[in-house]
Amino acid sequence: AAKANGRNGYQFYSDELSQEIRRERQLIERLTVAVADSSFELFYQPQIELSSKRLIGVEALIRWSEAPPSEFIPLAEKNGLINQISEWVLKTACQQISDWRDQGFECKVSINLSAVQFYQAEFDLMYADIIDSYNLPPDLIGFEITEGTLIRNIDDAIATVSRLSDRGFEISLDDFGTGYSSFSYLKNLPAKTIKIDKSFIDDLATSDLDANLVSGMISMVHSLDMKVLAEGVETTEQLQLLKQYQCDSVQGFVFSEAKNAKDFFEWLQVFEAEAKP
Ligand code: C2E
Ligand code: MG
Ligand code: MG
Ligand code: MG
């Protein structure tokens, strides 16, 4: 019986594997077309400062009708499509910032950087040139790199982050707590903000361990003279605890999910009207 099961098991796995490979091939084909046509959308998720209850910026998050970014971004990184996607994201964000400025609305937009582009020689120069071509002040652009990207090559990463930061761009360290970076690295990293990963926020209100961890992380980040943003905040209980722990700002469904520019702007009108005393 064991043998038969093994055979069936093998058959099952190989079918599943070939199905997965087929889906991946199809996605790569469609993604190649999407890149050529720029058929993506850029969504914006508000970042709220807790002390003032005000918008301090938005994170730009790419959307594609066929798959979520967690699926197609890694695929694009493996198949040489990430550079074109990243350039589209940067230019779309710059155009949006510029359109908002024309309407009298100044809003910092943070862009996620892929490890692949981050470690390309002179990527920062190319990016600075593009941003210059939109005549934007650098403080309206932020860059997010994940802790995983940072620790891949810590010395190069610190050098690149330093150059970006010297040019006036704000750097955030994304998904903090998931990448095993040590505080001795963080000491030398000219990032302005550390973003605590959603996985630590999820059980904040139900687990003493997670609550202690988050509260400790916030104190340590503050002792390095950086700001803390909590990612993926969904409930008012989590929000209350984060306030209590002196967390600087938050992002999450408790305020808003990522929305297209028009819906975000409408959300902001309501949010600001409600925030008035
Ligand atoms: P990330 O940079 O850590 O972005 C945060 C993710 O958490 C986003 O997922 C956001 O929609 C989601 N999120 C925010 N608040 C909540 C919440 O309260 N609850 C829940 N359940 N989720 C929340 P999204 O947009 O699916 O993006 C996933 C990841 O894909 C991002 O993680 C980032 O690593 C990558 N990504 C997204 N857009 C881009 C892009 O333009 N370029 C690159 N290179 N990567 C991107
Ligand atoms: Mg991010
Ligand atoms: Mg994150
Ligand atoms: Mg993430």
TrEMBL record:
Entry protein name: EAL domain-containing protein
Domain of life (superkingdom): Bacteria
Domain EAL per the UniProt entry, residue ranges: 24-272
Residue numbers of the full-length protein present here: 374 to 650 of 650
